Each structure stands twice: as C-alpha cells, then as structure tokens.
Amino acid sequence: QVELVESGGGLVQAGGSLRLSCAASGRAFRTTAMGWFRQAPGKEREFVAVIRWRTSFPYYADSVKGRFTISRDSARTMVYLQMNNLEPEDTAVYYCGVSGGSGADSFYTVASNYDYWGQGTQVTVSS
Q1: In which band, very low, low, confident or very high, does the pLDDT at 76 lie, cut at 50, 70 and 90?
Q2: Interatomic CA distance for residues 116 and 43, integer angstroms
Q3: What is the rounded CA–CA span in Å between residue 64 and residue 83?
Q4: Residue 28 confidence (pLDDT)
C-alpha cells in the first residue's frame, strides 16, 4: 500500500499564490508519474498537472498552463504544485495521485490510470 498525504491548501484571494505538497510513503512502488487532479462541487475530478518520475518532464492542463508549476523531490518522494495568479475557478479539492502505468502524456490525464490517491486538500479562491 502506498500512502499519499497532501498539504498546503487554504483560502486565498484572487491573484494570490499557494504551494501544495504531496508526500508518499509505504511499500516500494514502481512509480512512473505523480499527478495533481482537482474536483469542484458537482463536477468530475479533472486533471491539473503531472510529472514523469524518471525524467521530471511536466505536463499541464491548458487551464493552468503558465500559472501552475509541478516539481518533485525524488529523494523525499514528494511532489509539489506551485499555484500562482489563482482564480475563483481554481476553487476545488486538490488530490495527489501516483501512477505505475506508462504511455503518452494523455495517459496521465485520466484519473483511472492512477493507482493510489491522497485524501485531498481544499483550495478556496475568493474574488
């Protein structure tokens, strides 16, 4: 079992910034990528960003490109999401996931291709 714990969420005004963290622990797992998804009330979980574990190559949803940055610390098995210029539309519960699968970038935009998830952290952006 792999455990993921997210932190760093909170309430921020539009235009502000937050940095989310995700710490992974538990059994050894052949991680190929770690990603961030978000889910707003009444909506499906949507892809935000992913980082390939071996190459550190990132991939972003169009809605966050240029505002969010995903990074990792492989020594500590952690992944971060720096969120700048936040908008009210970014309000959601943000989830960290780990995938052991492989494929093109589009593979990692699908929530069902992730093997483990954290409990989520709430991000609220006020206008």
Answers
A1: confident
A2: 20
A3: 9
A4: 76
**Pair 99, 115: CB distance under 8 Å:** yes
Question: Distance between CA 16 and CA 105 in Å, rounded?
Answer: 28
Residue of 102, 29, 15, 17 lying closest to 4 (CA atoms): 29
Q: What is the distance in angstroms between the CA of the first residue and the CA of the last residue of the chain?
A: 40
Question: CB–CB of 6/79 below 8 Å?
Answer: no
pLDDT value of position 1 = 87
- Euclidean distance between CA atoms 3 and 15, whole angstroms: 32
Q: Phi and psi for 50 in degrees, rounded to 5?
A: -145, 150
Close Cβ partners of 90 (under 8 Å, ≥ 6 residues apart) = 38, 64, 83, 123, 125
User: Could you give the CA distance from residue 100 to residue 18 in angstroms, rounded to a whole number?
Assistant: 28
The average pLDDT across 83-96 equals 98
Check residue 27 and give its pLDDT: 83
